Known about the structure:
Strand content: 15-25%
CATH topology: TIM Barrel
Number of strands: 8
Amino acid sequence: MTLGMERSDSYGLGMERSDSYGLVDSHCHLGHIDAEPEGTVAEARAAGVDAVVDIGMGAAESTAAVARANVLDGVYASVGIHPNELAEFAADPSMDAIAALAADARVVAIGETGLDFYRNRSEASLQEDAFRAHIELAHRLDKTLVIHCRDAHDRVLEVLDDATPPARVIMHCFSGDAAYADECARRGFFCSFAGNLTFTKANALREAAAAVPEELLLVETDAPFLAPHPFRGKPNAPKLLSHTVQALADVRVTTFEQLAVVLRGNSARAFAIDI
Length: 275
């Protein structure tokens, strides 16, 4: 596939790969999907997705994510406060509630956190204070840090360089160009690609995906958002992850099967889990 083309759905519209490749959805929001989490996870497993990381975007969502992770096989949780929803952080910047949740064994990451200068729902200074608090917590607890970055690429790296990030950092829904991918790779950050990798006009994103070192690649759905081609505009779900994996394999000039093995190993290292 050339960088300017969408791949056709070679295994049938609506038909997902059922091969057992042990894929890991590194970022999804089970609480936002309009279906029972049990059914969503079962459908994902039938489509070859063995594990999902359920992301919290505030204390209440994080609490629910931890609860799901403790009852659903193959589900892990990440806890944090999204940069677009910082009222609770402004009211109590201690991060005590998130830290308490992070003590659970099924919590593998802190976040999503970071900077969003596109929506600007929170003041930049407040976003940065919250970002730094999440970085400190992830470092102190030796948890993976999951980063949201939108129209703030340079500042995100500046804050991370100034702070002391944990050993494992994931750039969720990577949105930079190839040069930014190189900067992230130089720092050892994982780059996670979502369904927008399959979009027709995502040439720069595909170039970035080609530039990331193999050992730092991850995939995600960000479900229910960013459904891949040919489901763009519809609700996303972990069962659709294979479409992004195939697009990434095409960009990397490798096979789905070979890339699936790489991604599983990377996911295990990125979250320090045994999968």
